[in-house]
Amino acid sequence: MSAHPENVTVPAKGEIVLEARNIVKRYGHVTALDGANLELRAGEVLAVIGDNGAGKSTMVKVLCGAVVPDEGQVLLDGVPVHFGSPLDPRKRGIETVYQDLAVAPALDIATNLFLGRELRCRGILGSWFRLLDKRKMKTEAQKEMAELKFHLPSIDSAVEDLSGGQRQGVAVARAAIFARRLVIMDEPTAALGVRESGEVLNLIRTIRDRGLPVLLISHNMPHVFELADRINIMRLGRRVALTTPQQHSMGEVVAIMTGAMPGNEQASGEDAA
Amino acid sequence: MSLNAAPSFNRGTVSLGRAISTPAVGPLVVLLAFGAIFSLSTHTFLAVGNLSLVIQQSVIVGTLAIGQTMIILTGGIDLANGAVAVLGTIVAGRLVNDGHNPVLCLLFAIFLCTVVGLGAGLLVSRLMLPPFIVTLGLLGIVTAATRLIAQGGSFPVTDDLLGWTGNSFIVDGSGVTYGMLIMFGLYSLVWYLLTQTAWGRHVYAIGNNRLAARLVGIPVQNRLLSVYMFAAFLYGIGAWLALGRIPNADPNALQNANLDSITAVVIGGTSLFGGRGSIWGTLVGTLIVSVLRNGLTLSGFDPLWQDLVTGVLVISAVAVDQISRGKQR
């Protein structure tokens, strides 16, 4: 297989943070991923796009540990890693935001931000009595939300009292707070209206500007073109092109996506098939 | 909605509290209202001995309802809690009657209840069976097993330890049983666990949005298992309280305790859909039913009215829950 970074025509700046090499995943007779490659570089928003069945959601599942690939390698900072469960990437500082709002609606914002990672009091109170440090979680939550410039009514509000965009903002903020290496966003705006999407897109931009690379999976072309530094186009289980919003227009990207126009990695893909 | 609409959300400023503690306010008002009505309509309701009796009468169901609350908060339900408690009373009663060490017998009975909870928890968490079906099946199994162990008899409690929870001391003229103190202690303990520890937040989160709970890394299966086991442990304590209240281990006792405990939980404002409610609400719910039964009896109503009014309360409580949830959408 030769579809490696050296073949890529797009100028790449940062170090490669997360890399997927020749990933193959079959479900019975269906080959969801057929030697797919992907590189996420430091400081960028990399959009992964593709038509239905192109393999983008399987790719996300591989990268966030929900699916173990049949072949191929995932490398984090150049070191091969094995993600056997969704907890593995998380331990290595990779957070994922899902399209269905992964929040507990009846619980408040601070509780949701720290859900599954609650802070306990110091000393015996924390270790023996398992007492939560609610005050600290609240102040931390407030601080983080202020840094992300994400406006919320009150950190004490129940999440169900928020708008859809604000709710997804909570999920995105949670990922941003705990991610040390990168954030994967799987269709973060799919369930949202136009204005609500705007809030979440701003938040993603802030996260990128703070230095966390973002892997954005989306089928929403305007959002992709608004946010992405580079675009990884998938078709039939592999990458067919790596481009930027400046190199190709939205129409061209859609054409590559659907096979109407050849991508810049067509050759390697067709050879292997 | 956009950011500039934010100030209109300011009503939700009560934190986790809003989800957990406020639901108990409505039931508390109902309890006080019933108390006031019966205080005015009868001469006997407020008598010190009577209030003590009201609480004593709610000790068993009140304790079973603690476990029921935790299970309902996860989105489940427990139809077997009364049966499990009766199993505890029969095992302890029979073993003590056979001449074994009462302390060990009691501990063994509570342990056995916890093992039943382990079984229920494994079926619910590992096999993903619906809690309704699991506990319906357990209701039959445990009831039958209890009768087999009892061999058609009942076991009068003569031992001091088994009956200890029914002993009382006098405070200001009214009797306080150790059973009451144990019940209030358990409520406080579970309040602490549910609201002050990560475990409790996980219980709420699982009932609220199970998928989200799993995605944020909460060990959902283990949490569910611990809830069912802990609840069953409390049913074991409930068995001890039952032996103190009525010093006779009878396999036919507590047949409606499962539904009564669900009634208490629902009247207490906990949502049957899971994820919302408070343990104090359940205590208030238990007391409402107890006050109602006591007050109507003292007022000279036919006992049938007790069930009728309780039924109305259950439906009203669920309607309030439903409507308030509807408003939040």
Task: List the defining traits of the structure above.
heterodimer; A: 273 residues; alpha/beta; Rossmann fold; six-stranded mixed beta sheet; four-stranded antiparallel beta sheet; 10 helices; 10 strands; 33% helix; disordered C terminus; B: 329 residues; mainly alpha; ABC transporter involved in vitamin B12 uptake, BtuC; two-stranded antiparallel sheet; 14 helices; 4 strands; 70% helix; disordered N terminus
Explain what the structure shows:
The complex is a heterodimer of chains A (273) and B (329). Chain A is α/β, with parallel strands linked by helices and 273 residues long. Chain A has a single domain (5-100, 163-272), classed as P-loop containing nucleotide triphosphate hydrolases (Rossmann fold, 3-Layer(aba) Sandwich). Chain A is 33% helix and 23% strand. Chain A contains 10 helices and 10 strands. In chain A, the strands form 2 sheets. A 6-stranded mixed sheet of chain A has the order 6-7-8-3-9-10, sandwiched between helices. In chain A, strands 2-1-4-5 form a 4-stranded antiparallel sheet, with helices on one face. In chain A, helix 7 links the parallel strand 7 and strand 8. In chain A, helix 6 (164-178) packs parallel to helix 7. Chain A is globular. Chain B has a single domain, classed as Orthogonal Bundle (ABC transporter involved in vitamin B12 uptake, BtuC), CATH 1.10.3470. In chain B, strand 2 (168-171) and strand 3 (174-177) form a beta hairpin. By secondary structure, chain B is mainly alpha-helical. The A-B interface holds A 86-87, 90, 96, 98, 100-108, 110-111, 115-118, 120, 130-132, 134, 151-154, 156-158, 160-166, 174, 195-196, 199 and B 1-3, 5-16, 18-19, 196-199, 201-202, 204-205, 208-209, 211-213, 215-218, 275-276, 328.
Secondary structure topology:
The complex is a heterodimer of chains A (273) and B (329).
Chain A: E1 16-27, E2 30-41, E3 45-50, H1 56-63, E4 71-76, E5 79-81, H2 87-91, E6 94-97, H3 109-113, H4 123-127, H5 134-147, H6 164-178, E7 182-186, H7 194-209, E8 214-217, H8 221-227, E9 230-235, E10 238-243, H9 250-258, H10 266-272
Parallel strand pairs in A: 3-8, 3-9, 6-7, 7-8
Antiparallel strand pairs in A: 1-2, 1-4, 4-5, 9-10
Chain B: H1 16-20, H2 25-41, H3 48-73, H4 81-97, H5 102-125, H6 131-150, E1 155-156, H7 160-163, E2 168-171, E3 174-177, H8 178-196, H9 198-208, H10 210-215, H11 220-245, E4 248-249, H12 257-267, H13 279-298, H14 304-327
Antiparallel strand pairs in B: 1-4, 2-3
